[in-house]
Amino acid sequence: MIVGVGPVGADDVVAVARGGAEVTLGDDALSAIAQTRTHIESLAARPDPVYGVSTGFGALATRHIPEHLRTELQRSLIRSHAAGTGDVVEPEVVRAMMLLRLSTLATGRTGIRPETATAYAALLSSGLVPVVHEYGSLGCSGDLAPLAHVALTLTGEGVVATPDGRIIPTAEAFAEFGLHPVTLAEKEGLALINGTDGMLGMLLLALADLDNLFAVADISAAMSVEGLLGTDKVFADDLQRLRPQPGQAAAAANMRAVLADSQIVASHAGPEDTRVQDAYSLRCAPQVAGAGRDTAAHARMVAENELASAIDNPVVTLSGEVVSNGNFHGAPVAYVLDFLAIAIADLASISERRTDRFLDRSRNHGLPPFLADDPGVDSGLMIAQYTQAAIVSELKRLAVPASVDSIPSSAMQEDHVSMGWSAGRKLRRAVDGLARVLAIEVLTAGRGVQMRAPLRPSPASAAVIETLRSAGVDGVGPDRFLAPEIERAVGAVVSGDVRAAVESVVGRLQ
Fold this sequence. Notes:
three-stranded antiparallel β-sheet; about 55% helix; Fumarase C, Chain B, domain 1; 2 domains; 9 strands; about 500 residues
């Protein structure tokens, strides 16, 4: 893909982060970068200090750095800021972060040289991934440590992961892949590390995952309603219009589509059914899942605004001034990262409650306890629900906002920070947990629906059950090693196979 002066799209970020798409800088970007660089060089030649160009950084900004020390200044900045520790961050996060930083460089507002931006693009396209660590960013002055580890790689130092998974010194990798280290000039160190790119990259990847998982949540909820002999009447369009929340309407429409033409639902739709109403976990599924969808819609708006931003400090204005600012503060992104973790925890919680109903013979309307083949000899899916409960408990802890915390840094110069990177890290764990909880509900609901034979499930539910069987997730039968089947169900959810199975029958879900 070509990165120009305009913002990259969310789909572009996913394509580069996960699909390995290569990038180049457009002529418009190179022209804008070159034009702005002339302003930086003019300011660098002045005798008076200019922050980010001829001074120290942060709390050390009062020192004027003479010209002969400025290359060392840039080198020292990157080396000192590459101070991360902990587990290695996933390659897709690093690649997303790099593309987003390159997009800001391409705006021409950072003062970087064209050759440095071109080298950054070449590093991203090479398939080499700088080793970035879990801890180090406070989400203010941007994701400093993570971006500094990338910048360190650009200068030929540090270590990288190769496409075949080796962790080797950058100098060795550059020689192997035909890349050359960059010696940074005035302003370039800050331009490479001052941005919300890490937290924004994690937000965009999470939104891509949630687009699939929200649909799966509607599918699993509908299958649970079906298997638990619930009613589909509460999902009627006219009822949803009484509360015009867009996410709720979409979730209810998806559930109606999944339940269409189900013999199981039709079997108790007449006056012989004396139950007045279903439990909340069934009846209110569109309200909870819909609220999650609306939260994601708000987060997507914030992400799109951030994609259109040129974040650096100081920034080069259109008039050529170099101006300090606070746009690097990650609060807008941090808040929605936390907000999504809250929505995920609640969506997983209601899913687990439906699974528990399936396993309790006092509430599952005639199914064997724990959906066991021979209860007492077999335990069925008893411990699968334990696994769900353990994940849901963890998700509740992950829902505690990171963005409400702040620890002052840089000798009180940076006295309020966003913790957006931390919010992004826990959101990634939350998304993974949600996928696993939903997969267990799909597995459970599939078995429960199968136990309603000879009544036939809806065509959509039947397609999901067939997809599970094809993936190696067996149905009713004696107890067997369950963990591999859960992992296969997770794979079918995460890959989009469960959603695709339904859409092959009912058309595209909302």
